[in-house]
Amino acid sequence: MYRTHLDQNRAPIYEALETFRRMRVVPFDVPGHKHGRGNPELTAFLGQQCVGVDVNSMKPLDNLCHPVSVIREAEELAADAFGAANAFLMVGGTTSSVQSMVLTACKRGDEIILPRNVHRSVINALVLCGAVPVYVNPEVDQHLGISLGMQREQVAKAIAEHPKAVAVLVNNPTYYGICSDLRAIVRMAHDAGMLCLADEAHGTHFYFGGGLPVSAMAAGADMAAVSMHKSGGSLTQSSLLLTGPKVHAGYVRQIINLTQTTSGSYLLMSSLDISRRNLALRGREVFHKVADMAEYARQEINAVGGYYAFGRELLNGNSIFDFDTTKLSVHTLDIGLAGIEVYDILRDEYDIQIEFGDIGNILAYLSMGDRAQELERLVSALAEIKRRYQKDGTGLLDQEYVEPEVVTSPQEAFYAEKISLPLEESKGRVCSEFVMCYPPGIPLLAPGERITDEILEHIRYSKEKGCSMTGSEDPDLLRINVLA
Ligand SMILES: Cc1ncc(COP(=O)(O)O)c(C=O)c1O
Prior knowledge:
Blueprint: H1 12-23, H2 40-46, H3 48-51, H4 70-82, E1 86-90, H5 93-105, E2 111-115, H6 120-129, E3 132-136, E4 140-141, E5 146-147, H7 152-161, E6 167-171, E7 178-179, H8 182-191, E8 195-200, E9 223-226, E10 239-243, H9 249-259, H10 266-304, E11 308-309, E12 322-323, E13 328-331, H11 339-350, E14 356-357, E15 361-364, H12 372-389, H13 410-415, E16 418-422, E17 436-437, H14 453-465, E18 469-470, E19 479-483
Parallel strand pairs: 2-3, 2-6, 6-8, 8-9
Antiparallel strand pairs: 1-10, 4-5, 7-12, 9-10, 11-13, 13-15, 14-15, 16-19, 17-18
Helix pairs in contact: 1-10, 4-10, 5-6, 5-9, 7-8, 10-12, 11-12
The structure holds pyridoxal-5'-phosphate (PLP).
Pyridoxal-5'-phosphate binds next to helix 5.
């Protein structure tokens, strides 16, 4: 079992809901479905067990906006399990955790140092609070075409050139499982009087596994946004925000309450509570198995030939300081197919839904719910796809990351006077909205960035290969908003 100070067998929100269920309280409060009775179709679909605890806050169940009893206890248990000073249950996805983290650290005009291959939620937060990004362009692996972690020297340079910046934000890890040297970056940030924030949307399991990269809290970071609903096993949209000892928890709560619902879902909160208990009690064993499965799949996929399922052999001591061995990322270009093409074939012809495919790679997300037989199916589908579809890769784009030219801050660009132009007439203009493939949701263009030939080519290619393009006001991305 994971060593903590509190009794991790407890799950206070879950326990309070079980007690509430037994009490048969007569509901003259919201939600209006009244434990499901008012909406039989929904009850038939989700089950009485589920709708019966879809309730609103009340004294015995506490209140997410101002926790004093069972939610507070659940948060204390989460902080204890994750080695944080404080933990906040979040119900607006890890987007809400990331945004609360950035809004806590930054005010209008503050500079924040971050890699450009961040999720859109980070740049959204800059639109909301008016902070100014100082981008550290990540190193790029030329063969795989993916962006890596931040190099220590690049972070040091950004800190030296922007000594008034308030924080450094790090992806721990990237979607592909690649980690920067987090401990060193935390040290550099702290030496310069800055906070260190970690987007750990893909790193929940780092807190519980053996042989996995260091977690943000263990590395001494000040805040971390942790997607419990990804590798942690909780319900979609539930998340955690963790803070270290230097961060004022009361202020964080006020920031969270600027945008958080006043009707926090008990389905989401209880799922966080139960999942945290599971991770604390069994996480080490679970993630050991997941890493073993991923390693097995890597070997099998590499034995097929053509594909490259990458792993720890990529480590370079700096921009790939560590690698999350539970991630199963596969380079596909050498069989002549873009990642997105393999992603679509897997779903359309093999009924296999993977996490995403992009220009040159696919990512199959492995977690506690996976079994060896499904992995076998994935491996044999990939082998068959190679046999049936392999082609000459001429003309395929091979680089995922396009270095941005930042002209104005995201907030300034987002709220500026703008006009809508046909995409093909937008070259040279400054974009005032987001454009990205989703997933992974890393903007190709963010508000305030110049639209270049390279970016237009990337958008055209991604559309042609079937990527879901999102972010723009025009859902078909035939037009784009630019500064007037
Ligand atoms: C790196 C990263 N950060 C933040 C998020 C936001 O998470 P959510 O979808 O839970 O809002 C994601 C989502 O995929 C992500 O990949």
